[in-house]
Design brief:
GO molecular function: hydrolase activity
Distance between the termini: 8 Å
Number of helices: 6
Pfam families: Maf (PF02545)
Helix content: 25-40%
Strand content: 25-35%
CATH architecture: Alpha-Beta Complex
Cofactor: a divalent metal cation
CATH class: Alpha Beta
Shape: elongated
Bound molecules: thymidine-5'-triphosphate
Keywords: Cytoplasm, Hydrolase, Nucleotide metabolism
Radius of gyration: 16 Å
InterPro entries: ITPase-like_fam, Maf-like
Length: 186
């Protein structure tokens, strides 16, 4: 059975939604600070790091790891450290376009398949009041870029270009393509 190297409830829900059977084993891989690298390289390295960490414990089994980050104006936004950081992030995203990158890594021993998917997201202008209320509601803290498109932040989004499930944390069409490429029967 596939092992999902993730503690993210969104990733579980997405795999369940498409009928994939899996076991969860979150990785303890410590995330690097997203500062310098480019976003594609960053999410790919993180997804691989998470998958390799778990794969060590399950020789001979397929392991899927993923990592999601928001990029805007050459800056990368991961999960906010606290409420003040979440407010800052949402102020930055307000009224602008940003990109969400998810890296996925499917591995089994020395066999490693990776893919990075980008989705562009346009936010309408948000008032200070809306930002504060959204952060106080508690949705942003465990999410890259301090928002959840699947939650109340759906009302912030004018349009997207690309995979919706990629924004939520796992690009399902591309995950299926990776299963086919690796000949993993799920
Ligand atoms: C942009 C966005 C992110 N997210 C979430 C998906 C991810 O769970 C999280 C990004 O953090 P990640 O570090 O990618 O993942 P994680 O720490 O939650 O879980 P794990 O490392 O164990 O796999 O942000 C949403 O749920 N909705 C959104 O709209």
């Amino acid at each position: 059975m596939l092992i999902l190297a993730s503690g993210s409830p969104r990733r579980r829900e997405l795999l369940t939604q498409i009928g994939v059977a899996y076991m969860v084993n979150p990785s303890t891989y410590s995330e690097e600070s997203p500062k310098k690298k480019n976003p594609e390289k960053y999410v790919q390295a993180q997804a691989l790091g998470k998958a390799r960490d778990v794969a060590e414990k399950f020789p001979g089994q397929w392991v899927l790891g993923a990592d999601t980050i928001v990029a805007i104006d050459g800056e990368m936004l991961g999960k906010p450290r606290n409420e003040a950081a979440a407010v800052e992030m949402l102020r930055e995203l307000s009224g602008k376009k940003h990109s969400v990158y998810t890296g996925i890594a499917l591995i089994n021993g020395h066999k490693e398949y990776t893919k990075v998917v980008e989705t562009k997201v346009w936010f309408r202008r948000l008032s200070e009041k809306e930002i504060k209320a959204y952060v106080a509601f508690g949705e942003p803290l465990d999410k890259a870029g301090a928002y959840g498109i699947q939650g109340r932040a759906a009302a912030f989004v004018d349009k997207i270009n690309g995979s919706y499930t990629n924004v939520v944390g796992l690009p399902l069409s591309q995950v299926c393509k990776l299963f086919h490429k690796a000949k993993v029967h799920v």
